[in-house]
Amino acid sequence: MNIRSLIPVGRERSNVPASLAPFASLQHEIDRLFDDFGRNFFDFGRSFPGLPSLRSADFVPRMNVSETDKMIEISAELPGLEEKDVDINFADDMLTIRGERKEEKEEKDKDYKIFERSYGAFARSVALPPGTDPNKIKANIDKGVLKVTVEKPTPKVAKKIDVKAA
């Protein structure tokens, strides 16, 4: 017996006759679905959008970036966070939003007591145009939505230089 046959690395494929090709492609998709499901078993939020993740420590806020001629606006959904929980840095034309969510919940009844804690740190980065002035970046948070506005740098104007004969 070959030792490689005991290692579950992937599914082996055999040569399938052309007449059975549609079924082979269906079988491939079913295999891929089950492989993905097994790989992400503890993260239902990524396997099945809309369902919560079982790994409560993971927190990746949703971000939207919109752009006009003069401004870039970044909005991030940070439910339950306040300004003291969020840190924004700008270096090397990269804007980084970091934060940490701490949640504690206690429930008491006459027969039981439940005390749950969940913590999740995150960091999201957005590349900004070269020449962005850090003094023109403004941020505010209201009702769990962070809005960062960035004034775009003025484009550099090319100037034609006339060459004169000496």
CATH class category name of the largest domain: Mainly Beta
Number of helices: 2
Strand content: 35-45%
Q: Which stretches are poorly predicted, pLDDT < 50 over at least 5 residues?
A: 1-12, 44-57
In spatial order, strands of the major sheet run 1-2-7-6
Give the distance, in angstroms, between the N- and C-terminal Cα atoms: 87 Å
Mean pLDDT: 77
Structural class, from helix and strand content? mainly beta
Q: The CATH topology of the largest domain, please?
A: Immunoglobulin-like
Number of domains: 2
Q: What would CATH call the architecture of the largest domain?
A: Sandwich
> In total, how many beta strands?
7
Radius of gyration: 26 Å
Order of helices and strands: HHEEEEEEE
Biggest β-sheet strands, sense, barrel: 4 strands, antiparallel
**Overall shape:** flat
Helix percentage: 10-25%
Spell out the key features of this protein.
166 residues, mainly beta, Immunoglobulin-like, 2 domains, 4-stranded antiparallel sheet, 3-stranded antiparallel sheet, 2 helices, flat
Give a short summary of the structure.
Helix content is 14%, strand content 37%.
Would you give an account of this structure?
The chain has 166 residues and is mostly beta strands. The chain folds into 2 domains: 20-55; 63-151, Immunoglobulin-like (Sandwich), CATH 2.60.40. Helix content is 14%, strand content 37%. It is built from 2 helices and 7 strands. The chain has helices at residues 21-39, 44-47, and strands at 63-67, 71-77, 86-91, 94-108, 113-127, 137-142, 145-151. It has a 4-stranded antiparallel β-sheet, with no helix packed on it. Strands 3-4-5 form a 3-stranded antiparallel β-sheet, with no helix packed on it. It starts with 20 loop residues before the first helix and ends in a 15-residue tail after the last strand.
